[in-house]
Amino acid sequence: SRRHKLYREELNLTSPAAPLPLRPEASWLQFHLGISRDGLYPRSSAAVTRLLRDLQELPTISADYSQDEKALLGACDCSQIVKPSGVHLKLVLRFQDFGKAMFKPMRQKREEETPEDFFYFVDFQRHNAEIAAFHLDRILDFRRVPPTVGRLINVTKEILEVTKNEVLQSVFFVSPASNVCFFAKCPYMCKTEYAVCGNPHLLEGSLSAFLPSLNLAPRLSIPNPWIRSYSFDGKEEWEVNPLYCNTVREIYPYSTGNRLLNIVDMAIFDFLTGNMDRHHYEMFTKFGDDGFLLHLDNARGFGRHSHDEISILAPLSQCCRIKRTTLLRLQLLAEPEYRLSDVMRESLLQDPLAPVLTEPHLLALDRRLQLILDAVGKCINTFGEATVVANDTAQPRSHAPDRARLDT
């Protein structure tokens, strides 16, 4: 705390800062303006390219806890945490031009697999999973994951010395190995042995660009119909009733439009990453009930390359419906010359923290892709292609009024 105070006095940061102008060409703003009903960004987006570069290079000007962590701080009993070595440690880092990103530090080495005895709701959050999920989402042409990039963060200069949050300042310490470490307060990790540490100052992490504020672009958070039970015992209805989708189909908005097909897209994406933690999904209200689903919070993916969790595919296998565009893309990525593992490997080489995934995780993508295509084939054999494959290739192009805009 003393060091932080001296640093601020040295740079005269205690005086009120002059208001900063908003630059229309800022990559953060251009990314937000590019959001449309088709996805978070166009297929070829110069703004996203610039945004990823800025996330890698621009210095941080402040650091703080995220809003959900602030809401919970001090409002929990740490003894009630199932696994205090836990799962969450994330910060909001701010940059110039009003840019901000969610920082998730490295908590698990790439070659480590999630232990078999871990429940999905107490698994680690992996920074490299967030990075890989962005690349996979873009390869699948979903474009529903915010731009995410890896970065080596100097936790002293880029977090401790720029934060104004005294609670965050208080959780920094120097380890016996002379590394600078920090940990989260309750409700997630309450002890220094659950900290993350630099080497001695540098720490790997993922940076995910923030979406427009809720005031400018309201979003809905909706429970996933295939939500899992978040307890040690008990099952949800979909886990015991193979005809569960018949019930879902009768409920609006899954009874009409593209919502159910978008849920299947999300399940396919989660199956490829191995993410079992999709309890809710979010949508922009601006685009109505048929808008795309945001694929947020992917840090629990890519935990076990040796296991394929078939239950994640329940929306596909129970409903036997898939978009034609999704199926065509999957079939293309199963071809030897466009093999998904090869495309992912090449894409991930662009990230500063490459290699982002180990080779077994990349090869697992090919195996899981084939399992998806097998599930679709089984559905077609049972119900016929006309029933299973939904033709979404002739959808009208988005119009200017449908685009998400920031009011300036």
Describe the fold and architecture.
Pfam families: Fam20C. The active site is at residue 277. Residues 172-388 form the FAM20 C-terminal domain. ATP binds at residues 104, 208-211, 282, 297. Belongs to the FAM20 family. This protein is an alpha+beta fold and 408 residues long. The protein folds into 2 domains: 24-209, no CATH class; 219-390, no CATH class. The protein contains 15 helices and 12 strands. It has helices at residues 2-10, 27-33, 46-57, 67-72, 127-139, 156-160, 166-170, 237-240, 244-249, 259-273, 314-319, 324-333, 340-348, 359-383, 385-388; strands at 62-65, 91-94, 100-105, 148-154, 172-174, 180-182, 196-197, 202-209, 219-223, 280-284, 322-323, 389-390. The strands form 4 sheets. A 5-stranded antiparallel β-sheet has the order 1-2-3-8-4, with helices on both faces. A 3-stranded antiparallel β-sheet has the order 5-6-7. Strands 9-10 form a two-stranded antiparallel ribbon. A hairpin with a 5-residue loop joins strand 2 (91-94) and strand 3 (100-105). Helix 2 (27-33) runs antiparallel to helix 3 and helix 10 (259-273) packs antiparallel against helix 14. The radius of gyration is 22 Å and the shape is globular. The two termini are 37 Å apart. Residues 74-87 and 396-408 have low confidence and may be disordered.
